[in-house]
Amino acid sequence: MTFHNEDLPGLFHHTDRAAISRQRESARATRAQLVLLVVAAGAAALPSGPALGSSRLFGLVSVAAYAGVLAVGARSTRRRARPQWQLNRSAAEFVKSLAWRYAVHGAPLGSDAADPDAVYRARLEAGLDELRKMGWEDPRGGAVPAGGEITAAMRRLRGLGYRLRRETYVRDRLIEQRTWYRRRTEVSRRATALWSWTIVALTCLALLFALLGSFGSGPGPGLTGLLSAAAAAGIAWNEVRRHHPLIEAHTLVEQDLAAMMVVMQTTVTEAQWPSAVYETERYVSPQHTDWLARHSS
């Protein structure tokens, strides 16, 4: 028996795609604003350039870049890309977690549940209702047909014996999540190193030119200001992406999952299984990762 994302309800797939789309939109908007600010600073630092009527070319470029920053910010605020990204990600992970609990008898959907389908649907609606209160747009009845919250694969896995359910959960959920966190940690480490060295290089160049300027030589304050703006943009982008706190958060979650995998394969009994699944799902929730990231930064 295998159980992968393809076996999850359609609501998960829709919210997952929406989260990815809104995350990219939010990142593009932030990146565009930072690039436009650097372009504006660079144009302002250059000589006035050719005349265009009563205006100067580089002056107009600087004005257009600053106006572009405001336009991109206004559009991003109107579309609520970042809040919708986070809400859709929370919805997708909530649906995924609850579906796994249903399929492998995790609490509160253990073997002792009198009507697991009713409990599942009640928990699902309660969780989604909280997200709707925060502005999440429920796609059911529109892009996602109503019903179908419990797939055939979920029912099939739930009907298996304890040993098969445990094996499937450890392999297709726990180990897969550990691999994902390890991969994201490596990506964040590489990005942190790249941006850290870029910021150091830009700052050192700005320092060198400022030092030369203090002795009356060097390229002048314009280039120094441009380098400072570029370094500031790099710092801002690094903070937006939260590479460093996510390295620590993902590492801690991976360690927790590794310990839980050993426990599940050695000491957890069938009676303890529902609470063990519940605890594992708590580790991989976006809220838990975000809490670790905030407190490690």
Summarize the structure in words.
- The protein has 297 residues and is mainly alpha-helical.
- The protein folds into two domains: 1-102 and 113-159, no CATH class; 161-297, no CATH class.
- The protein is 77% helix and 1% strand.
- It contains ten helices and two strands; from the N terminus they run H-E-E-H-H-H-H-H-H-H-H-H.
- The chain has helices spanning 10-45, 57-79, 81-104, 116-133, 152-158, 162-214, 221-241, 243-266, 273-283, 286-296; strands at residues 51-52, 55-56.
- It has a two-stranded antiparallel ribbon.
- Helix 3 (81-104) runs antiparallel to helix 4 (116-133) and helix 8 (243-266) packs across helix 10 (286-296).
Order of helices and strands: HEEHHHHHHHHH
Spatial strand sequence of the major β-sheet: 1-2
Q: What structural class do you assign from the helix and strand content?
A: mainly alpha
The total of helices stands at 10
Q: What is the number of domains?
A: 2
Cα-to-Cα separation, first versus last residue: 41 Å
Q: What profile does the largest beta sheet have?
A: 2 strands, antiparallel
What is the overall silhouette?
elongated
Which consecutive residue ranges, at least 5 long each, have pLDDT under 50?
A: none
Beta-strand share of residues: under 5%
Rg from Cα = 25 Å
Tell how many strands the DSSP assignment holds: 2
